[in-house]
Design brief:
Helices cover about 65% and strands about 10% of the residues. The protein has about 400 residues and is α+β, with helices and mostly antiparallel strands. It has two domains: about 5-230, Rhopdopsin 7-helix transmembrane proteins (Up-down Bundle); about 240-390, Alpha-Beta Plaits, CATH 3.30.70.270. It starts with a helix and ends with a strand.
Length: about 400
């Protein structure tokens, strides 16, 4: 039984309308999340685009303006999904302008090409290629966010992977449709009908799956946020003791050489006594920013393990490199600007440095050695770095 393009378009329209309803309800339940609104709008635009295709299906090639409007709707749909995914991933800037320009490009090309009398097959083929590019960009932003979340050891974003695979297949369907339209394989009308069937079949097969998996991404993020909150110190944004241990276990198995530092602000109790806990918290937060500035972002694991005590784990760090980082941090604190209530405080830090032994599978022994080195730095006059080399 041959597949009727109008029936397939109607089925796709129903699926995407359902997606629009689902994500509109999600957004009404939590209006703080712009990604939900953008995903809902994307489904609405695609539903309207499919409706327009059904109305224009009797024409061999839709007129320039009407066809251009339909392809604008179909192009803005993946553009909205791209924007929503960037909001979902908390990527800034979101780039509204480029996304909207890219979204209208397929429709604009179709309208201009048909108005100027370009060959219809080439106009439609390039329009479909532009849509394929938009879905390729959606695939890219989804794939870029796939990876083992450090807050969720041993987990994998299954729903996101499924969505990425579905969107990649959408991209492939538009690419194949463009090639079929360009080379034909029969009459031009047959080629056009075949291209509609290809895209519609893929949408019918994957539309429900991608919608459910996109909703699953929300659950995965909520789970990741809960796990991250359990491993993050709320005051500084650094790892807490649990997060440090989880990260250290992975690093100890494959990221040698490693260096461990314990940094402790000198005479911190006096700051709390003089300026209260609010002033002390401000100093701790400022110190955390200094640690981030000094330590290499990709090769350091930073944690606050209690009070004014911080741990820095450096990977791929030989003794000279580790000593260099420790001394830069000491000098950054000594020369730093710690403002509390308009008063600039003179703050110093003592740092203990140690190196995990080759057979260490847990961070505890290295932390104990670093703590002894810190004790030596305190007894040696503070504002200094001491190293304990013994295993």
């Amino acid at each position: 039984m041959p597949l009727d393009p109008d029936t397939l378009l109607a089925s796709s329209m129903f699926i995407n309308a359902s997606g629009a309803i689902v994500f509109s309800l999600f957004w009404l339940a939590d209006r703080r999340l712009p990604e939900l609104a953008l995903w809902a709008v994307g489904y609405v635009l695609l539903t309207l685009g499919l409706l327009g295709m059904m109305f224009l299906s009797s024409a061999r090639y839709p007129p320039a303006l009407e066809g251009g409007a339909v392809f604008v709707l179909c192009g803005l749909s993946p553009a909205c999904f791209w924007l929503g995914t960037r909001y979902f991933d908390r990527i800034r800037p979101v780039w509204w302008g480029p996304a909207l320009v890219a979204g209208v490009a397929p429709g604009l090309h179709y309208a201009v090409g048909m108005t100027l009398g370009w060959p219809p097959t080439s106009v439609v083929s390039v329009t479909l290629l532009l849509l394929a590019v938009l879905y390729a960009l959606d695939t890219h932003v989804l794939v870029r966010g796939i990876g083992r979340d450090p807050a969720l050891p041993g987990s994998w974003p299954v729903s996101r992977t499924v969505v990425a695979a579905c969107v990649a297949l959408y991209c492939l369907s538009f690419l194949v449709s463009a090639l079929v339209t360009w080379w034909g394989g029969g009459s031009e009308s047959d080629a056009e009908a075949a291209s509609v069937v290809i895209v519609s079949v893929v949408d019918n097969l994957l539309g429900v799956i991608s919608c459910i998996a996109t909703a699953g991404m929300l659950w995965e993020r909520a789970r990741a946020d809960l796990a991250r909150d359990a491993r993050i110190d709320p005051l500084t944004g650094l790892f807490n003791r649990r997060g440090l241990q989880d990260g250290a276990r992975r690093w100890l198995t494959r990221n040698r050489p490693l260096a461990v530092m314990i940094a402790d602000l000198d005479r911190f109790k006096r700051i709390n006594d003089a300026h209260g806990h609010a002033g002390g918290d401000l100093v701790l937060a400022t110190f955390a920013h200094l640690i981030r500035d000094v330590c290499p972002a990709e090769d350091s694991l930073l944690a606050r393990i209690g009070g004014e005590e911080f741990v820095i784990l450096l990977r791929h760090a030989d003794p000279d490199a580790a000593r260099g980082v420790a001394d830069r941090l000491r000098r950054a604190v000594e020369n730093g600007s710690f403002l509390v209530g308009g008063e600039r405080l003179a703050i110093t830090v003592s740092i203990g440095l140690a190196f995990p032994a080759a057979d260490d599978t847990d961070l505890t022994p290295a932390l104990e050695r670093a703590d002894r080195a810190l004790y030596a730095a305190k007894n040696g006059g503070r504002n200094r770095v001491e190293e304990l080399v013994e295993a």
